[in-house]
Structures are given as C-alpha cells and as structure tokens.
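In response to reviewer comment 3 from the previous cycle, which asked for concrete evidence that the modeling workflow produces usable outputs, we include below a single protein chain processed end to end. The sequence was submitted unchanged, and the resulting structure tokens are shown without manual editing.
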Amino acid sequence: MIILSEDGCKMFNSDFIETYIITDKGDNVLIAATYGEERPPKTLGRYKDIDEAKDALLQLYGAFSGNQIYFTM
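The workflow returned the following structure tokens.
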C-alpha cells in the first residue's frame, strides 16, 4: 500500500516499513514508520493528542485489513 503523509508532502511504500509507532513528544503526538535499526523512523503524521493519533492508526489498520492500495494519514 502507498501511504501519503498527513501533511501531503511524502509518500511511503508500506512493503518496506517494519513497524508503525505512536510517540508522544509533549506538544504533539507522532505516528512514525520504522525501517529497522539501521535507519531512523520517518514521521507519517502529527496529531494534537494521543486519542487522535490512535484513531489515525486504527484507520491505517483498517486500510491494511481491507486491502486498500492507497491511504492518506
């Protein structure tokens, strides 16, 4: 699946992403994609709070389980 970042500036190929994580940065919450230990995580979306980020991650999960080809964060 191709994932368009929340800001509309980056596209990600999910075939190469190892893990999707939510991380709280204090002033905002990020959903990031990890590619293993050799590469730093990349931000898919920035959200105002943990509930908003969890909702976005659940929507992404639904896109995967529904075999969507494209998804916008």
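The first strand starts at residue 2 and ends at 4. We consider this sufficient to address the reviewer's concern, and the full set will be provided in the supplementary archive.
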